[in-house]
Design brief:
The chain has about 210 residues and is α/β, with parallel strands linked by helices. The protein is built from five helices and 15 strands. The two termini are about 30 Å apart. The structure holds zinc ion. The site of zinc ion (ZN) has 4 residues, from loops.
Length: about 210
């Protein structure tokens, strides 16, 4: 399986290309300019928007789901998300930088109605990728991750990589976020692909004793 990162605005979108099928993880903030950039990036890889099997939304903040609403309207693309994210609450910040970012994140209150409910353990083989949905609440109540069988974790907003990798400094519920993070420590994860920042090796974050 081939993984390609596209950065649109401040957030990442990942294109997963398997045996003749393509899946998106997150979709950018939407709007004409961002949607066009996303379509161009797909076309460059020989994918037309109609070919997309599904779009998986790691959590229903605007920067992750805006494009998916357009794809569903224009091409009938199915959206996989946790139904607990049909509405999201206001985000809180941890630490001084987290608090500043939370204060600036006016658009972070959002939500999405999914076509396919992303329940814990849902296998994605039917969409051409060998991976499983993990329920990882905290950043939003319905935050999910996608763990491929070969150890790539698309973690959405559970972890981030600003300067160095860390658990997210923004969450609706930090107790839940910490629980989700601790759960991940037990899993056979090699690479982490966050919504924000560059992908990183999971062992980099495990080495940091403060987490
Ligand atoms: Zn978010």
């Amino acid at each position: 399986m081939d993984i390609k990162r596209i950065k649109i605005g401040s957030s990442n979108i990942y294109i997963l290309q398997g045996n003749g099928s393509s899946v998106l993880i997150d979709s950018g903030g939407g709007g004409e300019r961002k949607n066009k950039k996303l379509i161009r990036s797909l076309n460059k890889r020989g994918i037309s928007p109609e070919d997309l099997k599904v779009i998986i939304i790691t959590h229903a903040h605007k920067n992750q789901m805006g494009g998916a609403l357009f794809f569903r309207r224009a091409y009938g693309t199915k959206i996989i998300a946790d139904e607990k994210d049909s509405m999201t609450a206001k985000i809180k910040g941890r630490g001084i930088f987290g608090k500043i970012r939370a204060a600036l994140a006016k658009n972070e209150k959002a939500g999405i109605i999914s076509d396919i409910h992303a329940t814990e353990g849902l296998r994605l083989a039917q969409f051409g990728i060998q991976a499983t949905i993990l329920s990882l609440p905290g950043h939003t109540c319905g935050s999910i991750g996608v763990l491929t069988d070969d150890g790539n974790l698309f973690c959405g907003g559970v972890m981030e990589n600003f300067i160095f990798p860390s658990p997210s400094k923004l969450a609706q519920d930090f107790v839940l976020l910490n629980k989700s993070f601790i759960r991940l420590k037990m899993l056979p994860i090699k690479m982490v692909y966050p919504s924000n920042g560059r992908p990183f090796k999971f062992k980099r974050i495990l080495k940091n004793k403060s987490y």
